């Protein structure tokens, strides 16, 4: 009854066309042309979306939040809901209303001189790139592997790109946030009316509040400043290959040292034979024929088949892609430094390609021949084409712990995690993002839908093993948010007590995204544990 009252109020706020009573329509187009809400790769324990509401202004968001409080109807917020491998637009709590912000798609400002933009949550990486291209601005943005996602949503989830500005959350500057009571807040220098430095200086005066809204349910971000890099005069992409699995340790150690010394500025992406084999099977029917029944990823591909395909194609054990950006004079010296350092890694093969702007001009992203990694800031949806949400498609789930930046720890974890994955009859695909002082070590588990029942067991096994090593995920699927949060054990769970206290204080009705990242109101947490107070 309360839900019906809320939906009637929502129709008055956003219009009947922007309220979906059922989650089967209204979302931005996704895999296979679907416009339904939910997880395109649902695991064995579904998180089904409820109705959806789609505001297109900040005032509408505020009114919806007030109505949700009035009728005590929780809403699960998504910017666009394209979080593949982590749950898409599916809520933690079954049948929660989806607050879909994709219609809020205004680019408020792009500043070429200072290299920033202010955007609403519905703005995609593709949209921002196309606008920069249309205006012929000398700017390179950082984009993730699939460009149809929200700039704001990706940044709030601490998503990753491939240019010098790849750690998107570190390049956010200033937010506008609707709070759980419908009030409106601006962070940083946005506290000043008509501030001219809101997207330039993130510190502000007093406590920094921006961090409270990353991966949380404390507010709804309706505007964000994001900084990126001026277009370079020259760009060199580099690929390093090593022949043996154990070469991972010296390869990573060399890369992270080069990054700490500011020789390499963007985070290398590191991937292994399995990624190359998948790509080859999609392009070459003969390789697909060799894989045979294992090509649909319903089961673990035997090592003898992996070795056979690797020998036929001459595949390395590991590939690392990264780039150099800057004036041509600097590029030449940096490239020589990179090549000299990798001579110390046994068997390393270094290839590179340089693109130079016309003298006196800057290089635009579209002038660079694109490759496997969007290191020049050109977004696409090519990587999404490998997947299908259909019952005979290819699905994936991400297990994403953060590790120290030496190759020693990464190799130790990789060997253990690979064995755990294969023991569950699944395939480990390395998708490692290498930063100067940490590595986001994604086990990109691709699987046939018939294997989805094994995903929970392998996830929990990986979590327990990583816990023994002192590691935690930086991001997780909605099915595992509570379990991941349970590993925040310092001082008997002080972090969880604090996040619950904040939730109780600013969102006492539990209206915004209950359970996101394991954050609940105290009464909801007790109920979820089956420990309701008498």
UniProtKB/TrEMBL annotation:
Regions annotated as coiled coil: none
Pfam families xref list: FAD-oxidase_C, FAD_binding_4
Residue ranges of domain FAD-binding PCMH-type in the record: 45-231
InterPro entries membership: Cytok_DH_C_sf (IPR016170), FAD-bd_oxidored_4_C (IPR004113), FAD-bd_PCMH (IPR016166), FAD-bd_PCMH-like_sf (IPR036318), FAD-bd_PCMH_sub1 (IPR016167), FAD-bd_PCMH_sub2 (IPR016169), FAD-linked_Oxase-like_C (IPR016164), Oxid_FAD_bind_N (IPR006094)
Cofactor list: FAD
Keyword annotations from UniProtKB, A to Z: FAD, Flavoprotein, Oxidoreductase
Protein's UniProt name: FAD-binding PCMH-type domain-containing protein
């Amino acid at each position: 009854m309360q839900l019906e009252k809320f939906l009637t109020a929502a129709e008055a706020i956003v219009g009947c066309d922007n309220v979906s009573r059922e989650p089967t329509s209204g979302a931005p187009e996704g895999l296979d042309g679907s416009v339904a809400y939910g997880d395109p790769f649902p695991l064995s324990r579904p998180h089904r979306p409820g109705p959806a509401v789609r505001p297109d202004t900040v005032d509408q968001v505020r009114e919806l939040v007030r109505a949700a409080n009035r009728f005590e109807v929780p809403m699960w917020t998504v910017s666009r809901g394209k979080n593949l491998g982590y749950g898409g637009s599916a809520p933690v709590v079954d049948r929660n209303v989806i607050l879909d912000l994709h219609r809020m798609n205004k680019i408020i400002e792009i500043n070429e001189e200072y290299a920033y933009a202010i955007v609403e949550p519905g703005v995609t990486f593709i949209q921002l790139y196309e606008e920069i291209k249309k205006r012929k601005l000398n700017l390179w943005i950082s984009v993730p592997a699939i460009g149809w996602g929200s700039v704001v949503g990706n940044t709030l989830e601490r998503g990753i790109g491939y240019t010098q500005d790849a750690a998107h959350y570190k390049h956010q500057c200033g937010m506008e946030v609707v709070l759980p009571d419908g009030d409106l807040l601006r962070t940083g220098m946005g506290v000043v009316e008509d501030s001219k430095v809101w997207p330039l200086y993130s510190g502000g005066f007093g406590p920094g509040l921006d961090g409270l809204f990353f991966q949380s349910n404390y507010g709804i971000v309706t505007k964000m400043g994001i900084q990126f890099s001026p277009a370079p005069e020259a760009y060199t992409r580099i690929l390093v290959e090593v022949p043996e699995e154990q070469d991972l340790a010296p390869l990573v150690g060399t890369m992270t040292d080069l990054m700490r010394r500011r020789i390499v500025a963007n985070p290398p992406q590191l991937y292994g034979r399995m990624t190359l084999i998948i790509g080859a099977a999609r392009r070459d029917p003969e390789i697909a024929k060799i894989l045979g029944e294992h090509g649909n990823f319903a089961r673990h591909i035997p090592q003898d088949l992996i070795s056979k395909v690797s020998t036929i194609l001459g595949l390395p054990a590991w590939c690392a892609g990264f780039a150099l950006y800057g004036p041509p004079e600097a590029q030449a010296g940096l490239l020589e430094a990179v090549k000299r350092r990798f001579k110390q890694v046994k068997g390393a093969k270094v290839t590179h390609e340089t693109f130079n702007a016309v003298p006196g001009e800057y290089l635009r992203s579209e002038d660079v021949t694109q490759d496997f990694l969007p290191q020049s800031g050109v977004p696409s949806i090519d990587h999404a084409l490998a997947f299908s949400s259909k019952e005979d498609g290819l699905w994936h789930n991400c297990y994403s712990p953060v590790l120290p930046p030496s190759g020693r720890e990464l190799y130790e974890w990789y060997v253990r995690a690979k064995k755990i994955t294969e023991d569950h009859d699944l395939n480990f695909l390395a998708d490692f993002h290498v930063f100067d002082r940490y590595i986001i070590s994604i086990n990109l588990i691709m699987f046939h839908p018939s294997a989805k029942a094994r995903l929970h067991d392998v996830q929990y096994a990986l979590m327990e093993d990583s816990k023994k090593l002192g590691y935690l995920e930086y991001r997780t699927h909605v099915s595992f948010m509570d379990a991941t949060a349970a590993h925040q054990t310092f001082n008997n769970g002080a972090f969880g007590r604090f996040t619950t206290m904040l939730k109780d204080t600013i969102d006492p009705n539990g209206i915004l995204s209950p359970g996101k990242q394991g954050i609940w109101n105290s009464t909801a947490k007790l109920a979820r544990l089956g420990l309701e107070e008498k």
